[in-house]
Amino acid sequence: MNSLQVQPVARTVTSVRWLPPRAGNAYTDTDLYFISGSGSKHKELVLWTTGNPDFKQLNDSDTDNAEESNVLASLVAKTSHDGDVHAIAAASSDTVATASSFGTISIYNIGYESECNLSLRESVTAHRFANGEPAVCTALSVQPTGAADAEVASCGEDGKLSYAPISRLDALQSHEVDSTVITGICWPTPTQLAISTRAGQVKLFDRRSPSEVSAVFVDPSQSYDFECITAHPSQSFRLVTGTNTGAVLLWDIRNPKQPTMEAFNVHQSNVWSVQFHPTDSSKIVSCSEDASLAITQWVAENNNSDSQNRGVRHLSSFFNALSINCFDICPFTRTSIIVAGSDSGNLLMEKSPASEFSMF
Amino acid sequence: MSRIKGVDKFVVEREKETALHLKPGVFPLGRQSEWAAQNRTLTFALHPLTAGVAVSVAGKVPRENISKDIKVYAPDERVYFCKTVAVSDARLPFANDTHAVFLAMQSIMGQDAEEVGVEGLLRMSALYREAMLQQVRMLQDGEQQQQKESEFVETEVEIFQSMHAIWHLLEIIYLTTNLPGLNTSVVPYYMEWLNFNFPAPLAEDGQRIADSARDADALNKNTELWPYLKKLALRGHMTTLANMLEQVAPAQDLSAPSARWARELARVSREMPLGTSDETTGSFNARWRRWSNETHDIATAIGSLFSDEKDDPPLRSLFRIAEILRGEVDVISEEGELWQDVLGAILLYSEPTAQADRLPTLAQVVLEQFQTDEFTQLDRALVALINHDLAEFLVYSNQIDNWLSAHTSDIMDHLGILEEWRSVFAVDPRAHFLHLLGEKYLSHQDLWHVGLDYFGQSKTLTGMSLVEESIVRMPLESDRKAQKMLDVCAKYGLSTAIDRIHRQLGRQKWQRGRLGAAIGHFARVGDRNAIGQICDQLWAEYLKSGKLTYGPIIDGVMAGGRLRHDRLQFLTQYRDFHESYKAGDFIAAGRLLLAILVDETAPLHAIPDLLVDAIPLLEGDSLVFSADDTFELMRCAEALTQSPLVKKSIDTAAADQMLPWSEESPATTRQDELGIFNVACARNLARSFVVL
Fold first, then answer.
1. Residue A200 is nearest to which of B96, B453, B559, comparing CB atoms?
2. Low-confidence residues in chain B, pLDDT < 70
3. Rounded to whole angstroms, how far apart are CA atoms B37 and B27?
4. Closest of B416, B348, B424, B433 to residue B174, by C-alpha
5. Strands A201-206, A151-156: parallel, antiparallel or unpaired by DSSP?
6. What is any one of the record's Gene Ontology cellular component terms (chain B) (predicted)?
């Protein structure tokens, strides 16, 4: 098991997200920014910066100093958040959307001028139970469209899906689509949404008819709860869900009536977040209640079809005993940088050099 | 280092207790008597698990016993929650780091304690110490960044330095000098401990003395020099001592004998034998005897000069240094400020090969010369540790900090040295102190999981019941937190707590109108009764609205076929019946309806509605029910009419006009509907015979 670097931050980190490079191209950014959200006692959004490891050779001395002082990232700005931060989605380098335990979706602006700051631009209550109590907004996702005004879609414990343009949250639309808790959401395509539910279902929706389920997928052989979902960055028919039993399920839904599914039992407990590696999508990265990150090679190598024998690399830290709640992989650098947050009040990081690029 | 005195510590705690007050208060400042005169007093209840108190206004006598009307004010109706013990946020990194080490220690010792042995515990102990030092550094850095001194930081730093001193000594006595296969002297470790935890003389003092002196004369004139050199000798800083003696020796003001003996003392200081790991005790003792004899001769020689030249202060100091080096207990006791200093110097110069088991005897000799009633908690804990009085040690450790008593008792338990002390305590000391720490951590929102682990890892029935009782009282703020709590229960095998949490979640979801989620939770604990009630609610909503809207709820909870319940089965089949009917597939609809009735999945009160639903199929253009099917339907109707319970329900339903169509035709009752059903059955039966 490989070791993650740890930086204590004295708050329960519930969500973390890299921000796109400000210049639009990471190769010109020597500093990378990410944003973390916390819950329980400290309900906060914190903006962090860390050196771009692709520039290590240029700034060798600085990096060494940072490593010696055991600082993975430096705090740039912070602001309080209305409720626990359950999810963060970056719309651009200066705009993020957050999901709150009070059922709200909020849009924050990030200022990089003389003094960096985080400021709340707009907030709307998107999730509420029938009896009027606010429902936890469990996840949100920004529409992957090049259009200027993308939509943010959120889901909650009230079983509703909500959509709103990022520029006008007051134009929010909500549809009740599940009777249990919706645990995860993603956009496989700009017009298609996928959600995972506590009842172990994956449901697909067409954005153009958002209240109707276009397909439902269940694994009839096992009794799972799904905790999270994500879509392949380029193959929209591939979805991954994380389960409460520690498995990562890879779905191929090309034939919606007979989807194929492959299970990788890589964790001991609930899988809280899952992603395809942005620069090497043959890998699935997942984090879990068992305090570890797992990097699973899902594409069989050397025609080895036995899923259990495919490579799984586990990452953890001796000083992080509690659940890793969230992680994100920086898609803008050649060096793979994973940043994660945990219940032990730690930020965790792993930097690994990118594998040599080969076209054939 | 300034330290909290024992008495002061208690006063501080008492002050904290008295300083607890509500903000805003329940009555205006200075008007307590006026407020209390109106039959008011304060009542409180302690939280059963954490260090919290609920305070509210109460009447001194019951309201019924008071003749006049009492006005009720809004502040009187509030309940105030206060925390009497709070874990500071500054402690979070320390609590989390040491929790990780604690869990790792339980894990490795649980697997193969013998193989892990003292070496493994020593590694873990070093990690605990590093966490303490890291905490001190973090507190001091934070104070520096804020550029102001804080009383809180000072107190915390003091506590952590005390804890480190105690832990370090415990490590030396029970781990470092107990490594298997080594016959190690405690002296170098004790001196390292002494100089690390009670640094003296301070390097800054030495630097200041050196900086102030341009030459040997100036150095000699510095009044701080000779006390500083004596401290160096006491602490065994021989190289620094030798360097400074050589620096001061050329001073013009220094008498010739003083200069000569300063050089001689510098030489012997440099030559003091140091034990090495590859040297036998015998060989070291031989070297030590030679060196000791030499220092003895030097001390005697200076002593003879000193009697002649009584007005030579440097010579007097040199004599004192020589006396210290030869291990003269009286001189060491006079020069040592702390008992730790004296014990260190005696060990270093009198018993350089002493084992850890000599410490109690030597400590007793040293402590006779100190007034122990002025000792701090730290002193008392250290003395108890040296004397192997673990019961007293744990009590004093607990007074310094819960963390210390919990973790020291844990490591002592792993070492097997706590066993003989268990009889001294009314309860298992390890479990007791771990539970205390767990309770303390539970008072912090971010440390609930850590607190529960300290309960659970005590591996006692009390610990398990504490986990269970705590976890079922925790607020279920979100679905994810509920999952985490269930995970903790599964880790400790608390099936009853899992059931209770699922039931709480089920009720919570039910109240919030999330019926599907509620069914899911009740299904996990097999609460068929609650599931039945929710299904009845869904059925009643259908009857009330006439709209079949529960389909997605049923589909959601029955996904994957993991849930089996008669009522759910009935609702699913009934939904399918409607869909088939709507689609014009009357044969399939009829089969489904018959299956519901024959399998008896429907509740009795729903059967009349099902029979009524059969009427359009019986009276339709095409034959849906065969003769056998019709006989089944008639049998069901017969059984229904014979059931007194259902008869009553039919009458009640008719009276309440539960059926939506009853409003359209008030004259129609269930009895009439059943009559129509019977006629329809008879006609269908006739048709079925003709068709056949």
1. B559
2. 1-23, 48-51, 67-72, 84-85, 147-149, 181-183, 277, 306-311, 556-563, 645-670, 691-692
3. 12
4. B416
5. unpaired
6. nuclear membrane
Structural element, H or E, at residue A123 = strand A117-125
**Helix B566-582 crosses helix B528-545 at what angle (to 10 degrees)?**
30
Q: What is the pLDDT of residue B310?
A: 62
Sheet holding A293-297, edge to edge: A2-3, A312-316, A293-297, A283-288, A271-276
Model-level pTM greater than 0.80? yes
Query: Which residue from A131, A222, A320 is facing B511, i.e. has the nearest CB?
Result: A131
Say whether A319 and B96 touch across the interface (CB within 8 A). yes
- Residues of chain B found within 8 Å of residue A321, distances taken between Cβ atoms: 96, 99-100, 103-104, 453
The Cα B267–Cα B666 span in angstroms is 120
How far does Cα A111 stand from its chain's mean position? 23
Residue recorded with tokens 């172990």: A200
In this structure, how many other beta carbons lie within 10 angstroms of the beta carbon of residue B627? 16
Q: Which two tokens stand for residue B364?
A: 């007793």
Tell which residue, A175, A234, A229, has the closest CA to residue A203: A229
A346 and B446 Cβ atoms separated by less than 8 Å: no
Q: Is A343 exposed, middle or buried (0-12, 13-18, 19+ CB in 10 A)?
A: buried
Q: Tell me how far apart the alpha carbons of residues B37 and B256 are, in angstroms, rounded to a whole number.
A: 87
CA distance A325 to chain B (A): 10
Residue in this structure with the two tokens 């520029």, named with its chain if needed: A167
Radius of gyration of chain B (CA): 42
Asked whether the beta carbons of residue B478 and residue A101 sit closer than 8 angstroms, the reply is yes
Other Cβ atoms within 10 Å of B373 Cβ, number: 7
In angstroms, the CA B408 to CA B412 distance is 6
User: What residues in B contact A181, CB-CB < 8 Å?
Assistant: 479, 514, 517
User: Domains of chain A by range and CATH?
Assistant: 2-356 (2.130.10.10)
As for the ipTM of the complex, it is 0.92
In the structure encoding, which two tokens stand for residue A33, read together? 């920014």
Q: Is B310 exposed, middle or buried (0-12, 13-18, 19+ CB in 10 A)?
A: exposed
Give the per-residue pLDDT at B4: 36
* Exposure of B176 in the CB half-sphere (CA atoms within 13 A): 19
| Spatial separation of the C-alpha atoms in residues A104 and A126, rounded to whole Å | 5
Q: How many residues does chain B have?
A: 692
Distance from B444 to chain A by nearest Cα, in Å?
Answer: 8
Report the distance separating Cα B161 and Cα B167, nearest Å: 10
Write out the two tokens for A224. 């799972």
First vs last C-alpha separation in chain A: 31
Question: Residue B182, SS3?
Answer: coil
Query: Cβ atoms within 10 A of the Cβ of B78, count?
Result: 12
Report the DSSP pairing between strands A2-3 and A260-265: unpaired
CB contact at 8 A, A29 and A22: yes
**The pair of three-digit structure tokens given for residue B602, joined into one six-digit string:** 């429907």
Query: For A133, which of B90, B512, B560 is closest by C-beta distance?
Result: B512
Choose among A3, A11, A2: nearest CA to A347.
A11
The answer to whether the CB of B166 falls within 8 A of the CB of B400 is yes
- Distance in angstroms (rounded) separating the CA atoms of residues A163 and A192: 12
Q: Are B536 and B550 in contact (CB under 8 A)?
A: no
Residues B582-598: pLDDT tens digits?
888 888 888 888 888 88
Question: Is the Cβ–Cβ distance between A198 and B509 less than 8 Å?
Answer: no
Which residues in chain B have Cβ-Cβ distances shorter than 8 Å to A223? 560, 562
Q: Give the distance between the most distant pair of CA atoms in chain B.
A: 147
From CA B128, how far away is CA A309, in angstroms rounded?
38
pLDDT at A284 over 50: yes
Residue with tokens 């400790």: B492
3-state SS class at B211: helix
